[in-house]
Write a structure and sequence with these properties.
Strand order of the largest sheet: 1-2-3
Helix content: 40-55%
Radius of gyration: 24 Å
Number of strands: 6
Strand content: 5-15%
Structural class: mainly alpha
Distance between the termini: 63 Å
Largest sheet: 3 strands, antiparallel
Length: 423
């Protein structure tokens, strides 16, 4: 017999079904709560509300668990490529060799964007944040492919996946004053992106494999993260049957915030501020411990992970390998390493579980690779795109209804209109 929860309201007892997930997580089904009882639930920020069932990503913040389609993030990051992870998220299973080859071939052939779209760049000042430009590109792509891009087809999804690195690379080249580099079908997804971002037309030099590996791991670690702010936005925009580009543009807008995707940019800005102040990390550690000081260390702790961020250990190793391989000597990175060392040993941080998270290390890696700080959130979006698309696809194929949260009104009661001369 399925589990039930009883609700006592207005002297009546109502039975509500309990939905049990694969890993034993439980949710009270309140789908018909208002219809049955006249009540709605109040959950500001939706922190206790399951907005959907999903078979894509499992996350247990208390135990530090993250899995893509049942595979642990540790194993996936160690053994898979980013394109394998994209396939896994979209189709539910790891690809066989011929499936991965066909998938990569389609991605390499579909990366072009309409040339007139690059004129968008002329409308932006040079100090414009790249996330605003990324959003403009996606709304522009929506117009160029408006005939059928609301349809849930592999062609539409693969087109977005293929075009995303081209758009990001064009923004990166525009910032650095370089020229656009064409897609190279002989390179894999990540290597091609790096070539388009930092290369010159006709450049045939080889990329450092450690650089490619570090970028590949970063993208894997950001590929999906359950029903976070941007993913929930993609799903709620998609629930209106908005087209695929418009839905992704919604996710881009949500990701921009410093409490979400902008956190890795905030980490580097914090490190820059510490450097400008003389680089005294002890002073800033003391400020972080002072409850009366508004300063907080960015990139430490996580709202969901109450123990540790499982992605952080993976990315720390990639970060250490990259910095050693490139022999980088940078004051900013030295400050980051000193902060990391304190946070991993100091009882204040250990007792509060304020460990370095994925945003702390990702910002360091992006800087080491040569990306400007303002591009960090755009790179987060590049990694998260397959997760957004998988969630959008799942929502649409399940024919879920349009998202429409309720509210508890606490404004003025009914009152008469007062003519302006009498106010």
């Amino acid at each position: 017999m399925s589990e039930k929860v009883q609700l006592l309201a207005n002297g009546n007892t109502y039975e509500l079904d309990v939905v049990v997930g694969t890993e034993g997580d439980k949710g009270i089904d309140i789908t018909k709560l208002q219809e049955t009882t006249g009540y709605v639930t109040l959950d500001t920020g939706y922190k206790n509300t399951g907005s959907t069932t999903s078979a894509i990503t499992y996350l247990d913040g208390d135990k530090g668990i993250l899995r893509y389609r049942g595979y642990s993030i540790e194993e996936v990051a160690e053994k898979a490529s980013f394109t394998e992870v994209m396939y896994l998220l979209l189709y539910g299973e790891l690809p066989k060799t011929h499936e991965l080859e066909a998938f990569n071939a389609k991605l390499s052939q579909a990366g072009e964007i309409p040339t007139q779209l690059d004129k968008i760049l002329d409308a932006f000042p040079k100090d414009a944040h790249p996330m605003s430009i990324l959003g403009a590109y996606f709304n522009g792509l929506s117009a160029h492919f408006s005939k059928d891009n609301a349809a849930v087809t592999d062609e539409n999804i693969l087109l977005v996946l293929a075009q995303m690195p081209t758009v990001v690379a064009h923004i990166q080249q525009w910032i650095r004053g370089g020229r656009f580099v064409d897609n190279n079908a002989s390179l894999d997804y990540v290597a091609n992106f790096l070539k388009m971002s930092f290369g010159e037309p006709g450049d045939s030099s080889d990329l450092n494999p450690i650089v490619v590996e570090a970028m590949d791991k970063l993208l894997i670690l950001h590929a999906d993260h359950e029903q976070n702010c941007s993913t929930s936005t993609v799903r709620i925009v998609g629930s209106s049957n908005a087209n695929i580009y418009a839905s992704m543009a919604g996710g881009i807008a949500a990701l921009w915030g410093p409490l979400h995707g902008g956190a890795n940019q905030a980490v580097l800005e914090m490190l820059e501020a510490i450097k400008a102040d003389g680089g005294d990390t002890d002073k800033w550690i003391a400020k972080a411990k002072d409850k009366n000081d508004p300063f907080r260390l960015m990139g430490f702790g996580h709202r969901v992970y109450k123990n540790f961020d499982p992605r952080a250990n993976i990315i720390k190793k990639a970060c250490d390998n990259l910095l050693e391989a490139l022999n980088i000597n940078d004051d900013i990175l030295d400050i980051a390493k000193r902060l990391e060392e304190v946070a991993l040993k100091d009882e204040y941080f250990i007792s509060r579980k304020l460990y370095p998270n994925v945003d702390f290390y990702s910002g360091i890696i992006y800087k080491a690779l040569g990306f400007p700080t303002e591009m960090f959130t755009v790179l987060f979006a590049l990694g998260r795109m397959p997760g957004w698309l998988s969630q959008w696809k799942e929502l649409r194929l399940q024919k879920q209804p349009i998202g429409r949260p309720m509210q508890i009104y606490n404004g003025s009661g009914m009152r008469p209109y007062v003519d302006i001369k009498d106010r």
